[in-house]
Amino acid sequence: MPRIRVIPEDDQGQPLMAAADTVYRLSNACATLDSIDDAVEEWRKIALPDIEHTLLQRAQQDAIAKKNCP
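and the corresponding structure tokens:
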């Protein structure tokens, strides 16, 4: 099965968070256009909330750090 690795990075190319590297396995062999489309749609429903969570977590950390700086 094909896999997709997601590594959220900042503008300098540094990973946003430790262990943010996530591997998603696609659900089928992706042998036809329809199976590829189905697998990507399924991946999108799983991966995008994870990515959004990582980005929101980083934004929250940045906001807290700015608030605590004089």
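(Above: one complete record from the training split.) The chain has one helix and two strands.
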